[in-house]
Design brief:
Helices cover about 55% and strands about 5% of the residues. The chain is mostly helical and about 300 residues long. The protein has three domains: about 100 residues, Hypothetical protein, domain 2 (Endonuclease III, domain 1); about 90 residues, Helix-hairpin-Helix base-excision DNA repair enzymes (C-terminal) (Endonuclease Iii, domain 2); about 55 residues. A hairpin with a 2-residue loop joins strand 2 and strand 3.
């Protein structure tokens, strides 16, 4: 998408908020920069952090990330190990399919990219388990490429403050990319998308939050399209229902199964949740089969184990 196609109004508003956002971020990022992955531009470490952070709180990832990076400092070191070893380090974070994807990415890099993280959007998206956001996050945060990764926080700021078009994920992504190409040339965010994207992300996670945004603290409140108008909050359009309960959910049972298997080979009949045998054998069998299909666990002679 060209700058003209992105919409001159959206681009003009992005250019106008860039200076005050840069000033705010120069001070506000200090606390966020304590997160271990914020200090690196090493592509493999960035990729690891991004996959670990999917639908997982940063403080929980911060506890596990150093161990994963230390054990697997290169794609080759992970490709040479079993996926089970990575899952054991991952245990407790949930969404174990991400660990399987990271292992598959490492193998693909060894096979097709000489053991290195690829440097183009097309090559990154072609890696197992990587989508539009993760591929762009690696390009922006590791290589400082002028692309616009759109996570939940960045999406919220773009929709509210800049008035970006959220009618579809593709349209929003195209506008985010066009803005990222334009902003560094008008402000002091640098040549690429790293600083701009981190500033948007930090604003969305600390000030422009989903519920009860702290507009009085926002450095770009005076230019915010949503705040100055009377339309419903565009960032809330996709929010439906309540957050699913964890206790008693399939997610909790999946986590229980994986933690048990990480401790050693496990028979389904011995699985326990809060000290009791898991109920509903059909449900447990369905979840076990999902984990088997995802490659998170394997079954040998009726015993579950890490792959």
């Amino acid at each position: 998408m060209t700058l003209a196609q992105a919409g001159s109004d959206v681009l003009a508003r992005a250019a106008s908020v860039a200076p005050p956002l840069a000033e705010w971020w120069s001070h506000a990022r200090v606390a966020r920069d304590t997160l271990p992955w914020r200090s690196t531009r090493e592509p493999w470490q960035v990729l690891i952090s991004e996959l670990m952070l999917v639908q997982t709180q940063a403080n929980r990832v911060a506890e596990r990330y150093p161990a994963v990076v230390d054990r697997f400092p290169t794609p080759g070191s992970l490709a040479a190990a079993s996926v089970g070893e990575l899952i054991a380090l991952w245990a407790g974070l949930g969404y174990y399919r991400r660990a399987v994807s990271l292992h598959a990415c490492a193998k693909r890099m060894v096979e097709a990219h000489e053991g290195s993280v690829p440097t183009t959007l097309a090559e990154l998206i072609a890696l197992p388990g990587l989508g539009a956001y993760t591929a762009r996050a690696v390009l922006a945060f590791a290589f400082d490429e002028p692309v616009g990764p759109v996570d939940t926080n960045i999406r919220r700021v773009l929709l509210r403050a800049v008035g970006a078009n959220g009618s579809s994920a593709v349209r929003l992504q195209n506008e985010a990319d066009a803005i990222a190409r334009m902003v560094p040339s008008t402000d002091r965010f640098g040549r690429g998308g790293r600083a701009w994207s981190l500033a948007l992300m930090d604003l969305g996670s600390t000030v422009c939050v989903a519920r009860a945004p702290r507009c009085e603290e926002c450095p770009i409140a005076s230019a915010c399209v949503w705040r100055s108008g009377s339309a419903p909050d565009p960032a809330q359009a996709r929010r439906t229902g309540q957050t699913a309960r964890y206790v008693g959910s399939d997610r909790e049972i999946r986590g229980t199964i994986v933690r048990s298997v990480c401790a050693g080979p496990t028979k389904i009949t011995s699985l326990k949740l809060h000290g009791r045998i898991l109920g509903n054998p059909d449900r447990v069998q369905r979840i076990v089969e999902d984990l088997l299909a995802d490659g998170v666990i394997v079954e040998r002679n009726g015993v579950l184990a890490l792959p």
